[in-house]
Design goal:
- The complex is a heterotrimer of chains A (about 325), B (about 160) and C (about 750).
- Chain A contains twelve helices and twelve strands.
- With about 325 residues, chain A is α+β, with helices and mostly antiparallel strands.
- Chain A has three domains: about 55 residues, Uridine Diphospho-n-acetylenolpyruvylglucosamine Reductase, domain 2 (2-Layer Sandwich); about 110 residues, 2-Layer Sandwich (Uridine Diphospho-n-acetylenolpyruvylglucosamine Reductase, domain 3), CATH 3.30.465; about 110 residues, 2-Layer Sandwich (Enolase-like, domain 1), CATH 3.30.390.50.
- Chain B is about 35% helix and about 15% strand.
- Chain B has a five-stranded mixed beta sheet, with helices on both faces.
- The longest helix of chain B has 14 residues.
- Chain C has three domains: about 150 residues, Aldehyde oxidase/xanthine dehydrogenase, molybdopterin binding domain (Aldehyde Oxidoreductase, domain 4); about 180 residues, Aldehyde Oxidoreductase, domain 3; about 325 residues, Aldehyde Oxidoreductase, domain 4 (2-Layer Sandwich).
- Helices cover about 30% and strands about 25% of the residues of chain C.
- The longest helix of chain C has 28 residues.
- The chains are: A alpha+beta (about 325), B alpha+beta (about 160), C alpha+beta (about 750).
- At the B-C interface, helix 2, helix 3, helix 4 and helix 5 of B face helix 1 and helix 17 of C.
Chain lengths: ~325, ~160, ~750
């Protein structure tokens, strides 16, 4: 099927890209890797007048080790993340996340920024016009009620990005630039938790860089994802865990982030309380995972029943914690 | 709506084209250059039949705008056989019965080629992982894996 | 049998080099001068009266060359049988499913065609719709077709022996109900059509098909053109799996547009359209009541099956029957009753797909496991005790001339190490078995046979002309191997002209698994015919009797005396110089009962022969997630004779993946009323390379008395037996029966929780 008609702009630098966004206020959609947005264009979920491709912008790629943090430019491909010895060595959970996205050919062009900024998804929303036009528009399409939870007035579309939970687990931030201004916010604040407008980035902004602080001392991280097959799938639930060890040999910092249960990744504050201040035993891991279960309320709007996915939040959180503990041990605990 | 001027380098040759910006690389290859080896099977980048190599790496040409391929080297299945002689991978696919209906074959072969270029002697697991984004409905993948293994040994 | 030189060897297929280089042209790859692009306008309503269709604005759009609606069609209704003719392409009265064709536009490019669709206004009067079998059968439910009360499309009723007496005499009786939503074919190639009329009104049309002759006749009916003007042409086809046998609305729409526009027209379906607007498999619920004696032998069986057929009949009577027939062939059952119902709903149309109903086949087999469990008999023994044997008659009175069922069970069990593993595997590991049987051809009236011609070139090459069609399974190569073998030539000497209704004689198509048996036999007979003529001439030259001759490696020679030989090419030239050129002709019509009818008279010889098979797999289940890891698989089938072992292995491996891995773990459709929510590959999960286990293929040969070289069929059996093996193994691994398919991980977790609660 053809894409809808649009004019395409091809800036050669970030500066040029920002000028374009400014000039064509609100009428431009960004194509980074394209592996997410091209599908949505083909389904006519959006019909922008202009598309701006970042493929010719050379200053938006690269992973820089800046002593104390990594500066990952937003158009870095997922493959580059997977193959980066720095990321694999210092931010295993992030490398794991990137490596579990889709399949190798997708990862060859999909970008970190694009993966982060993907729109929320739902079986009832991500359809072509043939399917969508056979029913009244749902909330996310601007309609009056939810199609998944019939009559519901809240949008439960799911944020299924694999990278975000791990970036949040690592306390990463993003740099958002627009013509003449720049702001840096935690990755967690990119999300509005509103399925209808899930991202807080402005129409006139470009996400240019991701800052990942390199933790000090001994730490481990892991990302686990539920999918039915060994590739090509968005997560049906996911869990990313970061654990660091104090000099006394107990956990001093724990971040448990659950993905793909609602419109935004969720930091499970309660989970940390069962892990911090000790060397977690099985019972502690169980309680932390149970906490993740309690805070997650997926509905029946993806492939498998929400109740099953909810139960899997616990299982995958447990496994991510175990993975992070393994990473801790390998790091010399 | 204006057309864009774009020069595409495909299989070592340069093509000067005039195309509407919303056309994908897949469409331009098939319709303007009549290179019909790359195909559309899913329309959402999930199946791999549209695979071409972009600077040697397998990508979904249905998810790329034609104009985005300017300045890059595009390799399609038609560019593999040199001087009428089958590439070792093509030969292996035929020899090992890795082809049934043939619709997924160009994408599968190109993806396998990129693997062997990077990892000359892959393990079975590496082969399957590299091909995890290419769907075949006919073969169950068994003989595709055999063919890639055979081609890797041959390339030695 | 003489020692074979070509047949029986895994020779390279003749069609795959072109596929490897990308040169092979599929329908969507075709480009004809001045070709237009067409798109179809589809109904957004599941059930609605069509009040008005206004195409005037679309017709005026620059670049639009033709628009068609119901007014352009003859109103002819399609149905595989005269008594199931219920589908008008481009209907004038009602639409019956979301996606049904209402109008179509041909324009200079796709963007213009798409814009033109937006300019067509259709006024509908929405009607109530029914989306499930229960809703459709409820008293007072809206009727989808006025002549079908209760929305019952087909009722097949078979009652053999005395089921009641059999149950009374049984030592143990149990009843189970199994169900599954629909699956879909997901052929790699989405449907497409190219149509062109020439100046003399001849139609050339290309589309992926499972039998060009099966397409030509209905096209000639729908377009009111004589058959010799309807030319369905040869094209490379990207898979069929049972979903491309019938004429499609797209075929007629494309032809109508081409005729109206007086230019060639191409329609390319999106993946979505291929899923919604061609065919899907049936969803079904099957209740099976089985009674056995102390040894687990089935004395009586009563089966009721309801299948959701979607909005039109399609192959209705056949689709309802085949699931039962496969099982009555596979297992002995003296007393059996079958009530099969196909029910209309306002959903896309359902056809027949390889596994022919996982809820049926897996139900029969899992129940044997469950019965065995009650009686202390292991699954393999249960199968052996009930297995079909050569020389039997099936309950509906088909004679079984060759049967390797027992051999497939024993060999598979042996290869899989069944004895060492059964009951001895670690927790959450399981091993399971599935057995089935497949027909080799159905009664198809005047379209049930195949004819082939062979012509020769003076330098010794030959061309085989046959209606046999290749969907990717290797049928073209089969023809070459058979002709080369019989004529004593090499494969590279054989050219083929196939699957083109202008040139090739009638053939049933790759429908009902009959191409090898019927089409292959016809080619063999044509070659034998030619060979006899060659031998007449050669005999005189070699001073021998024709019966003493044989042919091999391009030479005809006296058996046992290879020096007394003459090249085939010379004999051909000699014939030419005598003014008596050699050509071969052969026809094969299966010996089936012409009076057998699916509904009216479901008795008599169904196919001339049957194939049989067994699959076993070993699995490991993750009890926390319910995800299944298939560790290893053994797939076997009595194929009669392996014409090309590697080709057959490919069928086993592909069938296993489709019927087993996909069909039982991940493939199913999700609906919102009549809206299909997973029509494409992101959400309809097809198996991937890293998901697949090592598959050991075990070819069993029972040497059928009438199959070509003893061959039967090899394309369908493993899909079904693999599906059954998956269920058997998983249920064994978790110790709980699961009767709703596919076995997605949530079902396993739920089953394990249920088991824990009971304990």
């Amino acid at each position: 099927m053809r894409l809808p008609l649009f004019q395409c702009l091809s800036p050669r630098s970030t500066k040029e890209a920002l000028e374009i966004l400014d000039r064509y206020e609100g009428k431009v959609k960004i194509i980074a890797g394209g592996t997410d947005i091209i599908n949505r264009l083909r389904q006519r979920l959006l019909k922008p007048q202009y598309a701006m491709t970042l493929k010719g912008v050379s200053d938006l790629r690269g992973i820089k080790n800046k002593k104390g943090h990594f500066l990952i430019s937003a158009a870095t491909t997922l493959r580059e993340i997977v193959e980066s010895p720095d990321i694999a060595g210092f931010a295993a959970g992030i490398a794991e996340s990137a490596g579990l996205v889709a399949a190798p050919p997708i990862r060859n062009v999909a970008t970190v920024g694009g993966n982060l900024l993907q729109n929320t998804r739902c079986l009832y929303y991500n359809q072509s016009e043939l399917v969508r036009k056979a029913a009244p528009p749902c909330l996310k399409q601007g309609g009056k009620s939810c199609a998944a939870l019939k009559g519901g007035t809240r949008c439960f579309s799911v944020y299924q990005g694999d990278l975000a939970p791990s970036l949040i687990a690592f306390d990463a931030s993003v740099v958002l630039k627009k013509a003449g201004a720049s702001r840096t916010i935690p990755v967690l604040d990119l999300f509005s938790r509103n399925g209808r407008h899930p991202l807080t980035i402005g129409d006139d902004e470009i996400l240019t860089d991701i800052i990942v602080p390199i933790p000090k001392g001994v730490y481990g991280s892991s990302y686990r994802k539920l999918r039915l097959r060994s590739g090509l799938e968005y997560p049906l639930v996911s869990s990313s865990v970061f654990l660091s060890l104090s000099s006394q040999g107990v956990i001093d910092r724990a971040r448990v982030v659950v993905g793909a249960v609602g419109p935004a990744p969720t930091v499970v504050e309660g989970a940390a309380t069962f892990l911090v201040g000790k060397r977690p035993a099985e019972a502690d891991i169980e309680k932390a995972a149970q906490s993740a279960f309690s805070t997650s309320r997926p509905i029946d709007n993806l492939a498998l029943p929400g109740s099953y996915r909810r139960a899997m939040v616990k299982v995958f959180t447990k496994r991510a914690i175990e993975g992070a503990l393994l990473g801790l041990r390998k790091a010399g605990a | 709506m204006e057309k864009n001027r774009v020069t595409l380098r495909v299989n070592g040759e340069a093509y000067d084209l005039l195309t509407y910006p919303h056309r994908t690389l897949l469409e331009v290859l098939r319709e303007d250059l009549h290179l019909t080896g790359a195909k559309e099977s899913c329309g959402e980048g999930a199946c791999g039949t549209c695979t071409v190599l972009l600077d040697g790496a397998p990508v979904r040409s249905c998810l790329l705008l034609a104009i985005e391929a300017e300045g890059r080297e595009v390799t399609t299945i038609e560019g593999l056989a040199a001087g009428g002689k089958l590439h070792p991978l093509q030969e292996a696919f035929v020899e090992h019965h890795a082809i049934q209906c043939g619709f997924c074959t160009p994408g599968m072969i190109l993806t396998a080629k990129a693997l062997l270029d990077a990892v000359p002697e892959p393990t079975e697991e590496e082969i399957r992982r590299a091909l995890s984004g290419n769907i075949c409905r006919c073969t169950g993948y068994a003989k595709i894996v055999d063919a890639v293994k055979a081609a890797s040994a041959r390339e030695k | 049998m003489k020692e074979l030189s070509v047949v029986g060897k895994s020779t390279r297929r003749v069609d795959t080099s072109a596929k490897a280089t990308g040169e092979a042209l599929f329908t969507a790859d075709l480009s004809l001068p001045r070709m237009l692009v067409a798109k179809v306008l589809r109904s957004p309503h599941a059930h609605a009266r069509i009040l008005r269709v206004d195409t005037s604005r679309a017709e005026r759009l620059p670049g639009v060359r033709a628009v068609v609606t119901s007014g352009d069609s003859t109103g002819e209704k399609w149905g595989v049988f005269r008594y199931t003719q219920d589908q008008a392409f481009l209907p004038s009265d009602k639409v019956r499913f979301i996606g049904e064709e209402v109008a179509a536009v041909a324009a200079v490019d796709e963007d213009t065609a798409a814009s033109a669709l937006d300019l067509i206004t259709v006024e509908y009067e929405e009607l109530p719709a029914v989306f499930t079998i229960d809703e459709a059968m409820k008293p007072g439910a809206v009727l989808i077709h006025e002549n079908n009360p209760g929305n019952i499309n087909v009722h097949v009723k078979i009652d053999v022996g005395d089921v009641g007496r059999g149950f009374a005499a049984s030592h143990y009786v149990r009843e189970d109900t199994f169900s599954a939503p629909e699956e879909s074919y997901f052929q790699a190639e989405p449907y497409a059509v190219v149509a062109q009329f020439d100046n003399a009104g001849n139609l050339d049309i290309w589309m992926p098909n499972a039998g060009p002759h099966l397409k030509a006749k209905p096209l000639s009916n729908c377009l009111k053109m004589p058959l010799n003007k309807v030319r369905v042409r040869k094209i490379t086809i990207g898979g069929a799996f049972g979903g491309r046998s019938e004429i499609s609305p797209a075929d007629v729409i494309c032809a109508l547009l081409a005729r109206k526009a007086r230019q060639p027209v191409k329609i390319t379906y999106t993946r979505e359209e291929n899923t919604i607007a061609t065919r899907q498999a049936h969803s079904m619920t099957t209740t099976i009541r089985t009674g056995v004696d102390r040894e687990g032998r089935v004395l009586s069986r009563d089966i009721t099956c309801h299948m959701d057929g979607g909005a039109y009949s399609s192959t209705g009577p056949i689709a309802v029957s085949v699931p039962f027939l496969c099982m009555e062939q596979a297992y002995r059952m003296e007393n059996v009753r079958y009530n099969g119902y196909r029910v209309f709903t306002n959903k896309p149309i359902r056809g027949m797909m390889r596994t022919h109903g996982r809820a049926f086949a897996c139900g029969i087999d899992l129940q044997l496991d469950l019965i065995g469990s009650e009686l202390g008999i292991d699954p393999v023994t249960m199968r052996l005790r009930n297995a079909r044997h050569a020389g039997d008659y099936t309950p509906t009175r088909s004679f079984v001339p060759s049967c390797g069922m027992t051999e497939t069970i024993e060999k598979t069990a042996d290869a899989a190490g069944w004895k060492e593993k059964w009951g001895k595997l670690p927790p959450f590991h399981g091993i399971g078995i599935g057995c089935n049987s497949v027909q080799t051809g159905f009664p198809m009236g005047i379209r049930g046979g195949s004819t082939a011609f062979i012509k020769f070139n003076e330098d010794g090459g030959a061309t085989v002309i046959s209606g046999v069609v290749d969907n990717g399974q290797g049928n073209e190569n089969m023809i070459v191997q058979i002709a080369a073998e019989e004529l004593g030539l090499l494969p590279e000497d054989i050219q083929i002209v196939t699957a083109d209704t202008e040139v090739t004689p009638s053939d049933p198509g790759s429908y009902s698994m009959c191409e090898t048996f019927i089409g292959g036999n016809a080619v063999r007979l044509a070659a034998v015919d030619a060979k006899e003529k060659l031998f007449q001439i050669a005999a005189r030259v070699l001073e021998a009797k024709p019966g003493e001759l044989t042919a091999r490696d391009r030479k005809i020679f006296v058996k046992g005396e290879p020096e007394r030989s003459i090249p085939v090419a010379r004999v051909i030239r000699m014939a030419l110089s005598k003014g008596q050129p050699i050509a071969g002709e052969g026809s094969y019509w299966p010996k089936v009962d012409p009076k057998r009818e699916w509904v009216e008279n479901p008795f008599g010889q169904l196919s001339e022969t049957f194939s049989f098979g067994t699959t076993m797999i070993e699995v490991k289940v993750d009890p926390e997630t319910g995800l299944v890891d298939v560790l290893e698989a053994w797939a076997s089938q009595d194929v009669g004779f392996a014409l090309n072992p590697k080709v057959i292995e490919g069928q086993f491996e592909g069938g296993f993946t489709m019927g087993g891995q996909g069909g039982m773990l991940t493939e199913y459709h999700v609906w919102d009323g009549g809206r299909l929510l997973n029509p494409a590959q992101l959400e309809y999960r097809l198996p991937l390379a890293p998901d697949m286990p090592k598959i050991h293929s075990i070819i069993v040969e029972s040497n059928d008395p009438t199959g070509p070289y003893g061959a039967k069929e090899a394309g369908m059996s493993v899909a079904m037996s693999a599906a059954q093996a998956y269920v058997s193994a998983i249920c064994n691994a978790i110790g709980v029966p699961i009767k709703e398919y596919p076995i997605t991980p949530d079902k396993i977790v739920k089953a394990l929780e249920g088991k824990k609660k009971k304990a």
